[in-house]
Amino acid sequence: MSGGNVETTQGPSMIFDSLPYYDNDLERDPGLKDRAERLIARELKPQQGLHPRVPPPISLFTNNPLLQAELARIESRKPLPQLDTSRYQLPGPTSSPATEQDWQAALNNAHAQLEHQRLRHTNLALLQNYGSNVWRIHNYQMEATAKYLDKTLEDLKQLTIEVNRDRKNFQTRVGTQLTTLETRWTELISSVLQIEMANVALEAEIDRLGKREVELASL
């Protein structure tokens, strides 16, 4: 694990970058690997409640009860209610004898059905005249968007490969230097420890000679 100070607009901060192509501490020390796995498992353990920084849930469609009811239906996985097909039929008056109001309601329904069929005929005529070209244009736009997204994905993959290759080359290049410095540091620490042990032994020898001198002087 290596780190360095980096100046930012908000002040100095510490950035840590791992050396996966060089560090092999986990392979050399099984105990360290076990401790790392325990720490990871502890972090992945589900916590009670949400984090304080998590915003509260958003209430959707607060001004539209119909959309709220539809959202609640989808969340509860309830099926859609069946369509009312009675408005597409032409029933006559059900009462016998039929009143003028009953016939007027049936006539209004017939006018509505006639207008609906006229609109359907108009839409079909528009679709027949212009639908094929609009569909071709839509397909062309979708194909262009798909090609752009594929190219963007390939560029990102290539960029990722280049970044990983550069990191590997850099870490491999400086790995020998890091190993040499680590070995030298170990040797220096060992030399310092040997010097300290020699100093302790020398102090003990000086103390012994001092006591011997005192004994000889007393004689």
UniProtKB/TrEMBL annotation:
GO-annotated cellular components: catalytic step 2 spliceosome; precatalytic spliceosome; Prp19 complex
Designated name of the protein: Breast carcinoma amplified sequence 2
Annotated keywords: mRNA processing, mRNA splicing, Nucleus, Spliceosome
Source species taxonomy: Eukaryota, Fungi, Dikarya, Basidiomycota, Agaricomycotina
Cellular localization per UniProt: Nucleus
Membership in a protein family: Belongs to the SPF27 family.
Disordered: region residues: 78-100
Signal peptide: none
Source species of the chain: Hermanssonia centrifuga
UniProt key word Nucleus: yes
InterPro entries in the record: SPF27
Swiss-Prot/TrEMBL GO biological process terms: mRNA processing; RNA splicing
